[in-house]
Every structure is written in C-alpha cells, then in structure tokens.
Amino acid sequence: MENVGPNSVQSAQVERVLIEQNYNNKKRKTKREKKKEEKKKEDAKKDKKMIKKHFQIVDRMLKRHSKQVKIQVEKEMQRRKEVTKMGRKQKKKLEKEMNKNETKKDKDYTKKNNMKSTDNDKEGHKDEKKIEKTKEFKKTEDKKSVRSRIVAFFRSLSCFKT
Questions:
Q1: What is Dmax (Cα atoms) for the chain?
Q2: What ranges does the record list as Basic residues composition bias (predicted)?
Q3: 130 is a domain residue
Q4: Cβ neighbours of residue 154 closer than 8 Å, sequence gap 6 or more
Q5: Are 162 and 155 in contact (CB under 8 A)?
Q6: What is the three-state SS of the chain?
Q7: Does pTM top 0.70 for this prediction?
Q8: Which of 35-39, 93-97, 141-145, 153-157 holds the top average pLDDT?
Q9: How far apart are CA 38 and CA 45, in angstroms?
C-alpha cells in the first residue's frame, strides 16, 4: 500500500467505474444479440408459415388440376371410343353397300344377258314408233314455230304489246 494518497483512491474509483461500464456494455451487447436472435427466429417462423401456406395452396391447385386432367383424359378416351365405333359402323355400311352394288350389277348383268334376245325383237317395233312420233312432232313444231316467230316480231316492236 504504497500509494495511499488521493490519486490512488481516484484511480481505484475510475477503474471500478470502467469495470462497471465494461460489464454494462457486455450486458447490453448480449441483450442486443439475444433480441436479434429472437427476431431472426420469429422471422424464420413467419417465413416457415408463409411457405407452408404457399405449399398448401399449390397442393390444392395441383389436386384441382389433376382432377380436371383426369376428367379431360376420360372424356378424350370416350370420344376416341365413339369415333372408333362410328368408324366401324361406317365401314360395315360401306361394305354392305358395296355388296349390294355388286349383287345388283350381277343381277343386271344376268338380266341383260337373258333379255338380249327379247330386246332385239322389241327394238324393231320401238324404232317404227319413234319414226312416226318424230314425223308428227315436226308437223306441230312447224306450226308453232311460225306463230312464235310472229309473236316475237311484234314483241320486238315497242309500240305493240300482246
């Protein structure tokens, strides 16, 4: 205890004050750090909640979308089945028509072969009738054509109206 004067007492007091300030500063720093950590944890919790909500929304949207896609796929499959059924029906109809046409052709061909002999007899008779009809038609046509020419002439003249 050499220095027991007023300076030593003052220096001891200054040291004590510095130590207290240092101690208080450390306390403040730890409090600040704790508050920062707590704030980070709260922000992390909030972010976690937001992400969770976002994922829930995305899940709901995916479920709805997958349902819609399933429905679309089912509708498309049904449409394809109907189209194939219609295609089969149309093929059958075409085949039936082709068969009918072939049978008609066969029937017509056989009829023609059978009828050729009778047609020759009928043709001669038909030719005679045609010749007579054309002669009569020419006579009546000549009379009509003269009359129609006269009427056309008068129509061409604007002062006469029939």
A1: 172
A2: 25-34
A3: yes
A4: 160, 162
A5: yes
A6: CCCCCHHHHHHHHHHHHHHHHHHHHHHHHHHHHHHHHHHHHHHHHHHHHHHHHHHHHHHHHHHHHHHHHHHHHHHHHHHHHHHHHHHHHHHHHHHHHHHHHHHHHHHHHHHHHHHHHHHHHHHHHHHHHHHHHHHHHHHHHHHHHHHHHHHHHHHHCCCCCC
A7: no
A8: 35-39
A9: 10
Give the total number of structural domains in the chain: 1
At 2, the amino acid letter reads: E
Residue listed under structure tokens 């101690």:
23
What's the token pair of residue 39? 């704030």
Average pLDDT value for residue range 98-104: 85
Position 103 scores a pLDDT of: 85
Specify whether the CB–CB gap between 160 and 154 falls below 8 A: yes
Q: Is residue 131 part of a domain?
A: yes
Q: For residue 152, tell me if it sits in a domain.
A: yes
Residues 145 and 147: their CA atoms lie apart, in Å, by: 5
Residue 151 CB contacts under 8 Å (≥ 6 apart), including other chains: 162
What range defines the domain where residue 154 resides?
126-162
Q: Is residue 142 part of a domain?
A: yes
Tokens standing for 151?
Answer: 């009427």
